[in-house]
Specification:
Strand content of chain A: under 5%
Structural class of chain A: mainly alpha
Helix content of chain B: over 70%
Number of domains of chain A: 1
Low-confidence stretches of chain A: none
Strand order of the largest sheet of chain B: 1-2
Oligomer: heterodimer
Helix content of chain A: over 70%
Structural class of chain B: mainly alpha
Number of strands of chain A: 0
Shape of chain B: globular
Number of helices of chain B: 7
Largest interface: A-B, 26 and 35 residues
Largest sheet of chain B: 2 strands, antiparallel
Radius of gyration of chain B: 20 Å
Low-confidence stretches of chain B: none
Number of domains of chain B: 1
């Protein structure tokens, strides 16, 4: 019985750590996606992308 | 470029293999502890994360010192990323430790010197991250961050020595006679440690890359605004 309870605590600890790490990895992944979108939007707005030569 | 990409893919595969090996050793390949039974298996991930936290904050302190001596944005970026991932791992250390404490001591939290100094460490670096998000000027932010990281680092050796300096109920894994556990458990500890360090390296690298892209976007935006005003 005590062993079963100890195992429950062990699984809970590993699960908690994995949730923390996964949440951070997910946050990093979402930020990468957001940055890529922002970068693409900037490239689309650039004069080169719109077929204009910015030089005077 | 493709060669470097291949190298990182191999690195990621090795880290994933280390995590799987660590989990196998933690749950199957090691014996139960005599008094606390399977709950002592928490120690593998707890120790791996705790030692990596020490590396993370030491690295941040070193890079912060380098920044103060020779102000270059890359030192600041690496230090900030190191602190960020280190703080996530400190959270993991506190949570896994608390769950173990509930089983072993009957309470999630007690004001033991090791626990208290670790909580102080967590708040110090959480403060560092909050401070960074409140300063807009990059050079000013980097300078204040570098000083903050150096001051906060003073708590790292205190956390590690807390069990010997003060009366503590926190178990000591490394004693003057070596590891206080069987050989198979020592191997599992080091496998988990290597796995967490691998994850730390990968996450820091990703966060630094993001910071570089962010900085590039800011420069482009400034140039674009300059052309249109």
């Amino acid at each position: 019985m005590v062993e079963r309870v100890a195992l429950d605590y062990t699984f809970a600890a590993y699960a908690a750590v994995f949730v923390i790490l996964f949440a951070f990895v997910l946050r990093v992944h979402m930020k990468t996606r957001m940055l890529m979108q922002e970068l693409k939007a900037l490239e689309d707005q650039s004069p080169k992308a719109r077929g204009r030569d910015p030089s005077p | 470029m493709a060669e470097r990409h291949g190298l990182w893919t191999t690195f990621r595969a090795v880290v994933a293999a280390l995590w799987l090996a660590g989990l196998y050793m933690a749950f199957i390949g090691t014996p139960d502890e005599r008094t606390l039974g399977p709950s002592d298996r928490i120690l593998f991930i707890h120790l791996g994360a705790a030692w990596t936290v020490a590396i993370a904050y030491s690295l941040a302190a070193l890079l912060s010192l380098l920044y103060l001596l020779r102000p270059q944005p890359r030192y600041d970026r690496w230090a900030a990323a190191s602190v960020e991932v280190g703080t996530v791992l400190t959270t993991a250390v506190l949570v896994s430790g608390s769950i173990w404490a509930k089983f072993a001591w009957g309470t999630y939290w007690t004001w033991d010197p090791r626990l208290t100094t670790t909580a102080v460490l967590w708040f110090l670096y959480l403060g560092y991250l909050m401070m960074r998000s409140s300063i807009d000027r990059p050079d000013q932010r980097a300078k204040v961050s570098a000083i903050w990281a150096l001051v906060a680092f003073l708590d790292v050796p205190i956390v590690f020595e807390a069990v010997t300096w003060w009366r503590s109920i926190h178990p000591e894994v490394i004693t003057t006679q070596g590891f206080a556990m069987p050989g198979s458990m020592v191997v599992a500890v080091f496998v988990f440690f290597a796995a967490v360090v691998g994850l730390f390296i990968e996450l820091v690298r990703l966060r630094v890359r993001q910071a570089e892209i962010e900085s590039g976007i800011a420069v482009r935006k400034a140039q674009w605004m300059g052309q249109h005003t």
